[in-house]
Write a structure and sequence with these properties.
heterodimer, A: 282 residues, alpha/beta, Rossmann fold, two-stranded antiparallel sheet, B: 320 residues, mainly alpha, 1% strand, disordered N terminus, binds S-adenosylmethionine
Chain lengths: 282, 320
């Protein structure tokens, strides 16, 4: 209680500062600058800054996820896999896969649905941050699941064209500097018939809810971040980056623009999150 | 799917109220066949009285009918497989190339119905056979429902081609078939398209009767029936379209039901049943007294027995 109160005061002041700087910096954005949360940084710097954020959070990240979303992220992730409904021949690339949470769910799903088939699901987890991949690797060892782990930027994937049938990215794409580049790469590495599925925070459409959610996400989440992960800056960044991410319809258009077909999105929990999906058909 | 010119395709969707018919006396897997016989007998009661089998007696439990029929119709929904229940999804894209690919996938999926029933698995296998990744199955929101509807549409299009050809041949040979004969040929042709899927056809009928699918399947049926009348060259103006639709829909529906349980070689009994029912159409005056002329009545005619069927079908094959 004491911690929360203290944190709240700090956050309140910081939140208003960052709100103000958002309006001024928005104007200054040009090709060489990109957003890092509400701070504007040089484009080359962003990848490095993002890396710092996740390095400092890596091992506590999953616990934070639980607290932040009230455990909802599990439901959202399960919904994402259920929507994807991978068959026993699915070949997955889980981009920005972090500790492999999506990948493990995918493996579980395939093994549960297709227990009669023997093929072991072929899954690759890719992330820009090696620390976080290490956490994932040790988890995979504990679980006795074998996955491929690749350290790479989602904007330049080290895989040949048409290598996968499923591409997932959960709470990762908003961290990327150039979203269109990520989408182009996703399209390139998917086989015809393959599916792109993205789970990401979204803007809340209901104005009242949106107000509550804003307050919650700017004030409560970073506090909890500090309490639990001991890293206030990182969580302030996470929250701000959600605000900067394109609205659901705009993002849907971006997905269509790189060639995906039957593009759709499904809002989750009053639109706090959305699952976007598209198919490569040619 | 491909839009083919239809002679009459406006159907008032408000009028698809299903008749709440009393459930048949028995609902249990072992007596399924008897019950089907019973339904068909109900059908025939209007016109003939002697040549059908006896109604099943003995194990009737009339008091449970009401609750049974409710429960069963709910259960019937789970028969094929779970589908994507997304309601609020925002979705665009019906460009021609996408439609073509979808059609190709579903066409291929039909080859897997025997193995996997009317399921998402059948669709993903079809996608692979079409050279696409299996997960493209996710494009079909209705899953197995989409596959069943696709089959119905394709079959109706094939029927249309068949009838068009027959009419052309008749014109060339200068010999005009009687309407009733033409109708018989058309219905037999259409029903024979189902034969390769017979093992899973009761499932498919269950799917077509689901509340969310019914508007589409009823529309398909109405259009098919209109097509048949159109190509049969019936010019009589004694009866409204609705009356005619009703007659044919009923004829088609009851013959299809009969076919489900027909064990005779090459469905010989079915075609005999069809011939008997065709007398209804020949003696059109007699029929017109038993069928009212509203759209409501038409769908009741076509689906009342189907409602019962649905209750029965809810039972046997639901162990997944
Ligand atoms: C919020 S975590 C999500 C992890 C995991 N997908 C999940 O849902 O639990 C975001 C991840 O994106 C990764 N990431 C950020 N920018 C990236 C980039 N440009 N390319 C690849 N991964 C990136 C981070 O290292 C981090 O592990």
């Amino acid at each position: 209680m004491f911690l929360l109160n203290r944190g709240k005061a700090i956050v309140l002041s910081c939140a208003s500062i960052s709100q103000a700087s958002y309006y001024t910096t928005a104007k200054r954005l040009d090709e060489n600058y990109t957003h890092f949360g509400y701070k504007t940084v040089k484009t080359e710097e962003k990848a490095g800054r993002v890396l710092d954020v996740f390095s400092s959070v890596a091992s506590k990240y999953d616990m934070m996820n639980d607290v932040m979303s009230g455990g909802l992220h599990r439901l959202w992730k399960d919904r994402m896999i259920q929507k994807l409904n991978p068959d026993n021949k699915a070949v997955l690339l889980d981009c920005a896969g972090g500790t492999g949470d999506i990948a493990f769910r995918f493996v579980n799903y395939v093994e549960r649905q297709h227990s009669q088939f023997t093929d072991h699901p072929n899954v690759t987890v890719c992330d820009i941050n090696n620390d976080i991949l290490e956490v994932g690797k040790s988890r995979a060892l504990e679980r006795g699941v074998s996955l491929n782990w690749v350290c790479s930027n989602a904007e330049e994937l080290p895989f040949p064209d048409q290598s996968f049938t499923c591409y997932t990215i959960a709470f990762g794409i908003r961290n990327c500097t150039n979203i269109s580049k990520v989408l182009q790469e996703a399209y390139r590495v998917l086989r015809p018939g393959g599916r792109f599925v993205c789970l990401e925070f979204s803007h809340v459409s209901n104005p009242i809810l949106s107000k509550i959610y804003d307050t919650y996400s700017f004030q409560v989440i970073p506090v909890m971040g500090e309490v639990i992960a001991g890293d206030w800056n990182s969580y302030q960044y996470l929250v701000e980056s959600i605000r900067k991410f394109p609205a659901a319809d705009e993002f849907k258009q971006m997905i269509s623009n790189v060639g995906f077909k039957v593009v759709a999105y499904e809002p989750l929990t009053f639109g706090t999150c959305a699952i976007h999906s598209g198919f490569r058909l040619k | 799917m491909t839009d083919v010119a239809r002679p009459l395709s406006t159907v008032s969707s408000k009028s698809w109220n299903l008749q709440k018919t009393a459930a048949p006396p028995v609902c249990s897997p072992c007596t399924r066949k008897t019950v089907l016989t019973w339904i068909i007998r109900q059908y025939s009661m209007n016109n003939d009285s002697s040549d059908e089998q006896q109604s099943p007696t003995g194990d009737s439990s009339t008091s449970n009918n009401e609750s049974n029929s409710h429960k069963n119709s709910e259960q019937a929904e789970g028969t094929t497989d779970q589908k994507d229940n997304t309601q609020d999804e925002f979705h665009t894209d019906n460009a021609d190339d996408t439609v073509d690919i979808k059609t190709k996938i579903l066409d291929n999926a039909l080859d897997f119905v025997h193995e996997y029933k009317w399921s998402r698995k059948a669709i993903s296998s079809g996608a692979e056979a079409a050279g696409l990744a299996g997960v493209s199955e996710g494009m079909f929101k209705g899953g197995g429902e989409d596959l069943v509807l696709h089959f119905v549409r394709q079959s109706n299009i094939r029927l249309q081609h068949f009838m068009k050809e027959s009419v052309k041949r008749q014109d060339e040979e200068g010999e005009k078939m009687k309407s009733s004969e033409f109708i018989r040929k058309a219905i037999e042709f259409r029903l024979r398209l189902i034969v390769p899927y017979m093992d899973n056809w009761s499932d498919a009928m269950g799917v077509l009767l689901r509340p969310n699918v019914l508007p589409k399947s009823a529309e398909e049926l109405a259009m098919m029936v209109d097509d048949i009348w159109f190509y049969a060259g019936d010019k009589s103006s004694d009866f409204s379209w609705y009356t005619k639709r009703g007659m044919l829909a009923k004829l088609y529906g009851s013959t299809q039901l009969f076919m489900l349980m027909d064990q005779s070689p090459d469905f010989k009994d079915t075609w005999e049943f069809l011939d008997r029912r065709l007398d209804d159409i020949k003696n059109i005056a007699e029929i017109s007294q038993s069928i009212s002329t509203t759209a409501d009545a038409m769908f009741q005619a076509a689906f009342s027995s189907a409602t019962i069927l649905k209750n029965i079908l809810g039972f046997p094959d639901r162990k997944r």
